[in-house]
Fold each of these.
Amino acid sequence: CFGGKKMKKTLFVLVLVLTIVSSLVAGTLATYTKTLDPIEGEVTAKQFYIGATETAFADVKLAPSEETSWDFSVINYQGDTLTEVDMDLNIVVTVGGDIDGLNVALYEGDTQLAETDVKNGTINVNIDKAFNKNVKEQRDFSVKVLWKNGQVTDAIDTANADAFAKANIAVTVTGIQDLG
């Protein structure tokens, strides 16, 4: 088909030469390649902690003209772990129940922050930059409850006692990262 033995020999030599030339050319066109070790780092979340010195308030009984106070502190550390960002505080005092004439107020130290005079009310206080980053701090608060005499009629006060009326008071403290 190819014209004989001589043609086959020529074709074989030609294929052999092309194979050798291809190998040489491929080898000479090679380039150096080297991959460096990865350059690594980590991103770790900064510490953000808020805690309270109290987890529950003692139940109390009051009559008209009597008052009580519950103290609590908010802290930005746990042992040696400090909050690493500035923090705002939001304090919500929720009053719900059946006693007419209660006055509930939130204080920090001797400073009154807010109050409510309704049997179902809410106090909502925001404190900007309440805690500084990397500084161990404590803020002291109190909830003062006064059953004001004369706020409602004596008949309503007596009805509250006869019905064993109750008021639930809950304090919720939320720490929020201060963004400046």
Note: The mean pLDDT is 85.
Amino acid sequence: IVSENNYIPERPYSSILILSIQTKEEIKEFNEDFYNRNVKDVFSHIRELDFRKNLESAFQQSLKVNENFPMVERSTNLFKPFKDYDFNSFLKKYNEMGGTALLVVNRKDAWQTRRLSSEYGEYHIPNYLYFCYLIDKDDLSRIVWSGKVIAKGAPFDYEFLNSYVSGKITRDLRKNKYV
């Protein structure tokens, strides 16, 4: 993991919304323009829903120190598929859940590595590049922490990759007192 601490909070964030997206863009600030270009339609992508649910679940499990802290909500639970959420609706639901921070997990790139095996023949290993951003609720233009992880996995096992990524990110967030 490569990470950057932009702002250390006075105390760890107690309530986090995990939002998984897939875009080539980097977040400079989480504003209405970025939301409309990169987030709004993610709730309509049924093709990626299982992957998003698994990824967000992996983060939810690794972020929790105990059953009640921090409170971690998944966007896949909060925002229903095929419903149109404009930026203000998104913010309203986020505020209603009591979020103190937004963790945006961006699967920025994906590729496969070709392998040959005498036992299995040719197969491909999935690889993912994630950019993650922790954004303070009180100032969505302020990215307090960012990190980059490359995950290389086993064929057909995105669950392993998601657990690997969430574990790496969580350890860095804990080490730097964000959660």
Note: Helices lie at 32-38, 49-63, 75-78, 87-96, 158-175.
Amino acid sequence: LVGTFNATTESYVDSLVSSDANVGISAKNEISTGDNGYQAIAGSAGVVGIGASVSNLDITGKVAAYLGSDATLSAGGNLDVNAELSVNSNPKTSSATVGGRAVGISSARTVISGEAFAGMLDGAKLEKANNANVKAHLTGKTNVYSVASSGGLAAITANVAKVDVTAKVTSEIGTGCTV
């Protein structure tokens, strides 16, 4: 079982905006395989039994909220720039093998790559605001389950569970910005 999830969310202002109230620029992205997980199940039986289950899951998420290089913004209230990425993954594998000679293999792997960016790009202008709040958040939760079992006169079992996570979270005001 192989799964690939790619999601990008972007929200920005790159022109003249004037408001007597609060101004919000928000981007939010939630990627989830669900609480019941992403499952691969295998079973085999015989004189010679070989069973294998594999679950590979690749998740890439990007979220950005910002004032662009050509933006000029005036807010009578607050300016809130928020970028939020949330990843929840639960891959599961199960393998059961029975035989005179039995081999059971189970492998679950998850690779998560996430980026969250909130800010003002080089040259953006904030002419007026009571407060300017720039926030980027990235949260994640992963549970990887791998179960293999085998039974017989000669039985071998192997389990592999692996998670790789790469995260980048940035909140910044670029060079040449007017605040």
Note: The radius of gyration is 24 Å.
Amino acid sequence: VTANTSISATQSTLTKTGGGNWGAYTYSLETYTTGLYVSFIPNNAGSGQYYSVGFDISSASGLSDVGGGSGYKWYLNSNQIVGYSTNTIVVPAITTNYNTNTYSLYYNGTTVGYYVNNQLQYSEMRSGTGALRFYVKFFGTGASIKSLVVSSTLPSKLITGLLNRTYTYTVTAKNANGYS
């Protein structure tokens, strides 16, 4: 992971240290095509502080523009968090305990899933192509995230949750003439 000079990193916490605009960002040097997982908890979510955390289309140029709309992200402002997919809201605003929940995104090579406290909120098939990068962008000095995890694999607690789902199917029987 690399960051510009307006970000400080200590263990699993990232904090914006300077400037008031979206100029503070960090992103993965690696690109991912078959799996990418990110998880975080908002830290120090105050007035005038905004965050964008997610996956973006990999690009050799324009990395300062990462998170601009071509990817999948959690977007947090001072009183709510929402999930976006290419600038469309896919997880409506979360306002209750929004700053203490754990937020995650997972890409398995075909599908992107949005999780809150390890519970799937939304998933979609990825329509674009190309490798993805993990990124974080901050607006407002002091904006911070903690408990940051970036991995190329899905944690076992989420895999277990996916495997233990109950699926319901509707079966319609038809006779030899095609009638029910």
Note: Residues 60-64, 159-174 have pLDDT under 50 and may be disordered.
